[in-house]
Amino acid sequence: MSFSKWIGAALGWSFGGPIGAIIGMALGGIVDAFGNGSANTVFTEAETRQGNRQSHQSQRTQPGDFEVSLLILASIVIKADGKQDQRELDFVRQQFVGMYGKERANHAFRLFKEINKQQNISTRQVCLQIRQMMEHPSRLQLIHFLFGIAKADGLVTNDEVSVIYTMAGYLGISHSDYESIKAMFYESADTAYKILEIDKSATNDEIKKAYRTMAKKYHPDKVLHLGKEHQKGAEEKFRQVQAAYEQLQKERGF
């Protein structure tokens, strides 16, 4: 699939609003990919999809809209500490290759590099558009992926934590959900409790109840509509919830 066809298929509701402006600027930087005719085709297709989605806002997020949202938020996180580490860029590429295959990943990374050149992306405006159009389980998946990017160089900096925390707030992610996902990337004495969104004073019955709640919240089927490529990340969250519960079972002997 050519880049022009890929981008035309990828953009739905994300073509409008502040995200649309960012993508428009990025496409402007990929001048060799478009003649006037192919560019017009891409934008016409995207605008048509956007109009269809606006009339059905309750419809679930499509893979292309999730993908574009992920590229923009990843760019913001990577630049949060004032420098771009090659390991973080490699992580983004590897994740896309693993999810989409080499050809589609190359298209995505090409767009990502152009997005990454933009200096004045409004985190608030982008996140509010995502919050309005994207359902909660998919937004949780975005936060999980962003922590993975931040951890790719071996260290999550305070600047990166701060920007992901800000994003989570704008995205409508609760503090407890944010701390649960964050704990999946840190090792501490109370990591298992944080993942299950409880504290150390919880009873065994409360731990069991918390596990059932978190297993339901992070079940991979929650993002089934995004395609099997995005279920891998959801499965990782689900496994960490299971591991946290099994650790507490072992420690408490129940």
UniProtKB/TrEMBL annotation:
Pfam families: DnaJ, TerB. It comes from the Bacteria. InterPro entries: DjlA_DnaK_co-chaperone, DjlA_N, DnaJ_domain, J_dom_sf, TerB-like. Coiled coil: none annotated. SMART domains: DnaJ. CDD domains: DnaJ, terB_like_DjlA. Residues 191-253 form the J domain. This is Molecular chaperone DnaJ. It comes from Siansivirga zeaxanthinifaciens CC-SAMT-1.
